[in-house]
Design goal:
four-stranded parallel sheet; alpha/beta; 10 helices; Rossmann fold
């Protein structure tokens, strides 16, 4: 089984979108546990790619291709995780791009990596008002709410979200993280968020740290 795990990891690192589906199906047929395949194969592969991207060794198109390869594998494995298993009781993470911003590549990558790490990810898309985000977070009982912005002009929406959450007591229920190219650690602290990360791999580590033993 370890051979399949290593091959899955390599397929992500090599951006093998075409071969991933068959490889994943073969791994299942051989008896590989689907959750183990995701966590030890796909997720570790994308973390390697994410680290290389963060170090400037890879560029965005390569990161996107690796993410697509991983998505192909997740699409095969995720439905096979037994109901009631670890993958089905994991904390829920709500993702959205804030209002006045329609960029989503980074958000989508974070969502894919969180899914591969076993979290339940609900992505409500781009250009989302604060009220919609908070309403959905309450509806699904999200443990973590992650919002992104790629433009400096839309960053104030993040502050509005945090302030609105504080005003209605939602900070006691949800943890809020922020991200996007212009978002710095200092800005994340200034608006009183629960953290930020410079890349998708870091975002997964951040969420793991926030949920602790709940996962």
């Amino acid at each position: 089984m370890q051979d399949y795990i290593e091959r899955l990891r390599k397929a992500v690192i090599d951006y093998d979108m075409e071969g991933m589906t068959k490889l994943a199906e073969d791994a299942l047929a051989a008896g590989l546990d689907p959750l183990k395949a995701i966590e030890e194969g796909l997720a570790l592969g994308i973390r390697v790619v994410g680290d290389k991207f963060g170090a400037g060794e890879l560029f965005l198109p390569e990161l996107v291709m690796a993410a697509e390869a991983m998505r192909a594998g997740v699409a095969v494995f995720e439905p096979r995780i037994p109901k009631g298993g670890k993958g089905r009781v994991a904390p829920k993470v709500l993702l959205a791009t804030v209002q006045d911003d329609i960029h989503e590549i980074g958000k989508n990558l974070v969502g894919t990596m969180l899914t591969a790490s076993g979290f339940q990810v609900i992505d409500i898309g781009v250009n989302q008002p604060c009220e919609t985000i908070l309403k959905k977070a309450k509806e699904i009982d999200a443990v973590v709410v992650g919002v992104s912005a790629l433009m400096t002009t839309s960053m104030p929406r993040m502050k509005e979200l945090i302030e609105s959450a504080e005003g209605r007591g939602a900070r006691d229920v949800h943890q809020f993280i922020v991200g996007g190219a212009p978002v710095t650690e200092q800005y994340a602290k200034d608006i009183k968020s629960d953290g930020t990360a410079g890349d998708a791999s870091g975002a997964v580590k951040l969420v793991h740290g926030l949920v602790g033993d709940q996962k």
